[in-house]
Amino acid sequence: MVREAYLAVDAIAQKDNIFTRMDARLKVVVTGVMLASVIGLPGTRLQLGLFTVALLSMLAVKIPFRLIFCRILPPLALGTVVFCFMVFFHEGNRLFVLNVAGWEIVGYREGFNLGLTVLARITGSVALLMFLSFTTPIHQLGYALIWLRVPKVIVEILLLTYRYLFVLWDEGMRIRQAQTLRLGYPAWRSISGWKQALRSTATLMGMVFIRAYDRAESTFSAMQVRAYNGNITGYDFQSWNKLQTKYLISSFVVLFILVAVSI
Fold it and tell me: In whole angstroms, what is the distance from residue 95 CA to residue 111 CA?
């Protein structure tokens, strides 16, 4: 499942459309400025506006809505949990009171506003990063970060993590399938079933850790054999042209309009 998702995202990023034709450096800079605006500016209008723009942009280039929804659902669920905690535990003026089984649960106005701001920031940030990942291949993103003087060790860790995250996940899924065939995960309705499942999970985690160490050793040896010295080479950016300038101006015009409307 993870491999298919990885291949789908990589295939989408390789498609020819208006956003993939944009220079990777431009997209990284614009996304960084928009992320800073989402995180730094108060309120929720700008955050929701950028979320809407990013969502419509992804749908405009025919990115499947199901893929977008599946990727945004986990951070959205986490943000909803944070929102609920802030509503009920950030004391202030009472907004509403719920009586549940004799318990009085109070929701506070300040917590509601703060939680809504956090939820909007999470949603807007995730949408922007999804747009960047769906329209920029990972190797172009790495070269753009190097051009922007991001430390090479960070870019190296990013590329290796992206590559081997899916490899290790597939390795773990193969181990889990083998355990399942050997009745390593029986029915969870009994205590003995829970114990067996926990033992199998612990074994799975240990084996994945050992496989990750082995993969790291073999990858490091292969990189040494190929005379890797920490430099990432092999890609030259095209010269800046008027089209990229138009893209840059259009992006900042959209951001300026959203900021003006949100004030």
Answer: 9
* Long-range CB contact pairs, 253-258, < 8 A, 24+: 254/53, 255/30, 255/33, 255/34, 255/37, 255/50, 258/45, 258/46, 258/49, 258/50, 258/53
> Does position 7 have pLDDT exceeding 60, yes or no?
no
CB 41 within 8 Å of CB 262: yes
Q: How far apart are the first and last CA of the chain?
A: 43
Q: How far apart are CA 179 and CA 182, in angstroms?
A: 5
Structure tokens at 138: 């990972």
pLDDT beyond 70 at 5 = no
Q: What would the pLDDT profile of 115-144 be if each residue is shown by its tens digit?
A: 999 999 999 999 999 999 888 888 888 888
Q: How far is CA 11 from CA 57, 126, 186, 235, in A?
A: 17, 20, 38, 20
Tokens of 136: 């920029």
Strands (E), the chain: 94-100, 103-108
Q: Which residues pair with 31 in a beta bridge?
A: none
- Rounded Cα distance between 175 and 205, Å, is 10
Q: What is the pTM of this model?
A: 0.79
Distances (CA, A) of 184 to 138, 174, 193, 208: 37, 13, 9, 16
Counting other chains too, the contacts that 117-122 makes at CB distance below 8 Å and 24 or more residues apart are 117/42, 117/43, 117/44, 117/47, 118/79, 118/82, 118/83, 118/86, 119/79, 119/80, 119/82, 119/83, 120/44, 120/47, 120/48, 120/51, 121/38, 121/39, 121/47, 122/75, 122/76, 122/78, 122/79, 122/82
Instruction: Count Cβ atoms below 10 Å from residue 174 Cβ, excluding itself.
Output: 11
